[in-house]
Design a protein that fits this description.
single chain; 254 residues; 5-stranded mixed sheet; 17% helix; UPK3B protein; membrane; transmembrane
């Protein structure tokens, strides 16, 4: 009998941080499970993502080999499929890779005759559950737990969108116009009164127009800021050496 796959405590999840397009009407993002399969995977193993409707995840059965992997085209009938086949080395702790995976991002999956594991757009809001499955030449070797239900966004029907705001009554428009006119008149009066008060306070001090014109002012020139000297050890000349007197030259840090 084949050995049952190891049950890993990792739970897949949508990234909790803000992310553009994290959940759409046909796709969602997942955190990449780094370091999860270390100690279980060999160089020839692959990691798959199993996607199932939330109410069908309990009935999902792991395939015994790659030929039995449920395909994207079987989702409406089988209620589940597997996708995102990736070399296990891409999920190791030392692998430089994107921190997220996108489920449902391959629109070319709808082309006729495609036989490879497809990552096509999800056909409905779901909800869905996902888990990662490590498969080797002899079948499944390790699997994560199922995620919590993931619900996609629902598109808004065009018939529910109001094309234009409701028209206001003519009486409301007349009142609004009158209030706007009164506000403009009041603002003009207040500005005129303030201007007259300021001009009157200047006249008794003997600051007539002629005196005000003949009076000159000397402005203070502000020179441009000069570059500050670099602290010891920051300048490099020739390239590759740092000057730090009285210490001997040392390699530059870039």
């Amino acid at each position: 009998l084949p050995t049952p796959p190891a049950r890993l405590p990792y739970v897949p999840q949508v990234p909790p941080t803000a992310l553009l397009g994290k959940v759409t009407a046909t796709t969602f993002a997942l955190e990449r499970p780094r370091c999860v399969f270390d100690g279980h995977a060999d160089a020839s193993d692959a990691v798959w993502l199993a996607v199932a409707f939330a109410n069908a995840s309990a009935a999902f059965r792991n395939p015994r080999c790659r030929a039995e992997v449920p395909r994207y085209e079987q989702l409406p009938a089988a209620r589940s499929y597997m996708t995102l086949e990736t070399a296990a080395a891409a999920f190791s702790c030392s692998a430089p890779s994107s921190p997220v995976l996108r489920v449902g991002g391959d629109t070319a999956c709808r082309e006729q005759g495609r036989q490879d594991p497809c990552n096509g757009p999800l056909p409905s809001p779901g909800p869905y559950r996902v888990k990662f499955l490590l498969m080797g030449c002899r079948g499944p070797k390790a699997e994560t737990r199922w995620s919590e239900p993931i619900l996609l966004r629902t598109a808004v029907s065009p018939s529910t969108i109001e094309p234009a705001p409701a028209r206001r009554g003519s009486a409301v428009l007349v009142i609004a116009s009158i209030l706007a006119s009164l506000g403009a008149v009041l603002a003009t009066a207040v500005l005129g009164a303030l201007g007259a008060k300021v001009w009157g306070s200047l006249r008794p001090q003997g600051l007539g127009t002629d005196a005000f014109i003949r009076r000159s002012y000397r402005t203070h020139h502000i020179p441009p800021a000069l570059p500050q000297p670099l602290p010891p050890g920051c300048g490099c000349s020739p390239p590759g050496l740092c000057h730090s007197a009285p210490q001997p030259p040392a390699p530059c840090q870039t």
